[in-house]
Amino acid sequence: AQSVTQLDSHVSVSEGTPVLLRCNYSSSYSPSLFWYVQHPNKGLQLLLKYTSAATLVKGINGFEAEFKKSETSFHLTKPSAHMSDAAEYFCVVSGRPGGGADGLTFGKGTHLIIQP
Amino acid sequence: NAGVTQTPKFQVLKTGQSMTLQCAQDMNHEYMSWYRQDPGMGLRLIHYSVGAGITDQGEVPNGYNVSRSTTEDFPLRLLSAAPSQTSVYFCASSLQGLNTEAFFGQGTRLTVV
Fold first, then answer.
1. Which residue among A70, A80, B32, B50 has its CA within the 20 to 30 Å range from the CA of B98?
2. If you average pLDDT over residues A74-90, what whole number do you get?
3. CB-based contact (8 Å) between A22 and chain B?
């Protein structure tokens, strides 16, 4: 089985400062990892994904994440926050190859607040 | 391309009523899923399908039915609505498998009173 823990339920940063959203995972397999963003009253949009290629993954809107197997982490970062980054962010780990009810496991989310 | 389309966007039901949440995708994806999102819980898998005519239960299937008669459509039926089913429901589709990149609809916000 697999699980994912988002270490902060809320993160508040000032506009123009760096963003760090933390995610730890556990998996019995070699997982794929994803970050999704959900703006208020919207669906989920894929920010970036790791699928066993480069460990530093670049996504949309200036976000990136680094896969660290030794630390079982996949933290999301951005050098400079923008007001439009205010949203809910979900770290997601894939399940057993072949899918089934193990398909995707979602973290509980981190609410990112941007202070002007 | 529209992607994944869900209807309705909002719905209020009385306890005991039934309804169907519609989901359609135009990307020819074989894999489709229904999730519910509750505050502080992330998304939890209700039912999924790996192709037309094939469905199975996810983590929280009780009180819901699904069918998959075509590749495009994957409706979710609430048989007898309960207040515990108040939630936001998301439909998703994926190309290469249930544990790969998923494309989500805009969601249906359901309130059961």
1. A70
2. 97
3. no
Distance (Å, whole) CA B105 – CA B113: 25
What is chain A's mean pLDDT, rounded? 91
Q: Considering only CB atoms, which chain B residues are within 8 Å of A99?
A: 31, 48, 50, 97-99
Q: Which residues contact B53 (CB under 8 A, 6 or more apart)?
A: B68, B69
pLDDT averages per 10-residue partition of chain B, 113 residues? 90 97 96 93 91 92 96 97 96 88 93 97
Give residue B80's pLDDT: 96
| pLDDT reported for residue A99 | 59
The contacts of residue B39 (CB under 8 Å, 6+ apart) are: none
Of A43, A44, A99, the CB nearest to B99: A99
Residue from A45, A104, A108, A111 whose CB has the most chain B CBs within 10 Å, to mutate: A104
User: pLDDT value at position A91?
Assistant: 96
| Cα separation, A79 vs B17, whole angstroms | 49
Rg (chain B; Cα; Å): 13
Using a CB-CB cut-off of 8 Å, the residues of chain B touching A95 are: 98-99
Cis? peptide before B61, omega within 30° of 0: no
Averaged over A26-55, what is the pLDDT? 89
Three-state secondary structure call for residue A100:
helix
Q: Which residues are bridge partners to A92 per DSSP?
A: A34, A106
